[in-house]
Amino acid sequence: MTSLPYTPSSLYFGGQPQQPISRTTFKTIDPSTNSPLAVLTESSQSDIDRAISSAAEAFPKWAATPAAERARILQKAALIIRERNDELARVETHDTGKPFSETSTVDVVTGADVLEYFANLVGSGGLNGETSVLREDAWVYTKKEPLGVCVGIGAWNYPIQIALWKSAPCLTAGNTMIYKPSEVTPLHGQYLAEIYTQAGVPPGVFNIVQGGPSVGTYLTTHPTVAKVSFTGQVSTGKKVAGCAAGSMKYVTMELGGKSPLLVLDDADVETAVEGAMMANFFSTGQVCTNGTRVLIQKAMKPEFEELLLEKLQNVRVGSLMNPNTNFGPLVSETHYQKVRGYIKHGIEVDKAKLLYGGLEAPEFPSGTDEKLKQGFWVRPTIFTNCRDDMRIVKEEIFGPVMCILTYDTLEEAIRRANDTELGLAAGVFTKDLNKAHRMVAKLEAGITWINGWGESPAEMSVGGWKMSGVGVENGKRGIEAWVRNKSTLIDMSGKIATAFPKL
């Protein structure tokens, strides 16, 4: 048997790789060539129980560790991640199919940023409670206390970033975590666990299990688990939230979107085009916040589309390690077939006008390795003259498919932008900032941008409205999702107000 590029551990708890009891295996695939990268073992219920026991045993001591000391350990972990940036980025490139030019500058870096942010926040008193003086002889104070053993369930599009977005606030708040990567992109799990251990995170505080939906279901319903944080599609998120709510677990759900990007007639056309390209084609369109409904005022449409077609020549496929490559394949064969199905439906059923792209494979530069032609590559695709009732406009495709729509009035644009059960993100392009603020205030979305798209720094709390999620991640509010409040009232008067006085 030919050896595979990676031989990762499939189970990590107690501060080290562990031998799984399970014998059920699955493969992870390099989507650029459709070739196997590694074989992993799916965690059995017994494996998960062992990991959870390790986390439960570690929790009391980690929770009692002073916040500043936890912060120092996690700051060291962030430093190690930065030092190993390129190594981790190569793993992400192989596992996700993203170009190295992207993973090396975004995925790992932004994950480290969040870990550093929460370590600094907590280390400088971010978990301090409040004090209120009620009267001269009575006051109230609050404490923020960790929840216990928490579960993080990751998505396949930003593997290590999402793992850090969940584990950073979880661990800094004093909780322990069982993390399940997506079975589609699982390789980062062991790397992150080993980095935490190297930095000084005690055994049992951060643990990895592997596998598919059945593993996630068992984690979500486990009686020891206090909280579940999930990132993924809406339908799965509803099931996870339902299971967790049944046993009164805390939840954070970061789910899908079908976000509107509004271009006003006074917008700088080049800025709007660049923004629309970032909102549709970055990460091959596999971003939950993508602005795939591009609403343009009618008068601007011809100029916008002309410049868009010109700039699409800057989208470059090829070897993922080539610094000039900026567009990769879709993550898996299953997702490839799904996205192609939407493109086919847009052409044949919705009858939208195909402005660019379609079902043909992209053209590779001359001299490209023939193996790449076996991968899950699609072309950036643009439909124009779209209608709100088209399936490609209504449903989340999660691929590089842009739908261009036109509108007459701003009131119409806002109404149509909000006409969806999803509410993850939205954005406005205009030179009139007063108008932009007024429009953003009316858009029903938890994440909004003005004259930009996609940036999500550690300081920015992000989360969806409506069916796009529950709770937020990152920013100061992000730590609140990983603690519970305890309020105490102290009465120093020496007297008790009673309803039962002696007559």
Describe the structure.
It is a single chain. The protein is α/β, with parallel strands linked by helices and 503 residues long. The protein has two domains: 12-254, Aldehyde Dehydrogenase, Chain A, domain 1, CATH 3.40.605; 260-450, Aldehyde Dehydrogenase, Chain A, domain 2 (3-Layer(aba) Sandwich), CATH 3.40.309.10. It has helices at residues 45-64, 67-83, 85-96, 100-123, 159-172, 188-199, 213-221, 234-246, 269-281, 301-311, 333-348, 391-394, 410-417, 433-442, 475-480; strands at 12-13, 16-17, 25-30, 35-41, 131-135, 138-146, 149-153, 176-180, 206-208, 225-231, 250-254, 260-263, 293-297, 353-356, 381-384, 401-407, 422-423, 425-429, 447-450, 465-466, 469-470, 483-491. Strands 14-15-16-13-12-18-19 form a seven-stranded mixed beta sheet, sandwiched between helices. Strands 9-8-7-10-11-21 form a six-stranded mixed beta sheet, sandwiched between helices. Strand 12 (260-263), helix 9 (269-281) and strand 13 (293-297) form a beta-alpha-beta unit. It is globular and about 85 Å long. It starts with 11 loop residues before the first strand and ends in a 12-residue tail after the last strand. The model has no long low-confidence stretch (mean pLDDT 97). Keywords: Metal-binding, NAD, Oxidoreductase. InterPro entries: Ald_DH/histidinol_DH (IPR016161), Ald_DH_C (IPR016163), Ald_DH_CS_CYS (IPR016160), Ald_DH_CS_GLU (IPR029510), Ald_DH_N (IPR016162), Aldehyde_DH_dom (IPR015590). Residues 24-487 form the Aldehyde dehydrogenase domain. Belongs to the aldehyde dehydrogenase family.
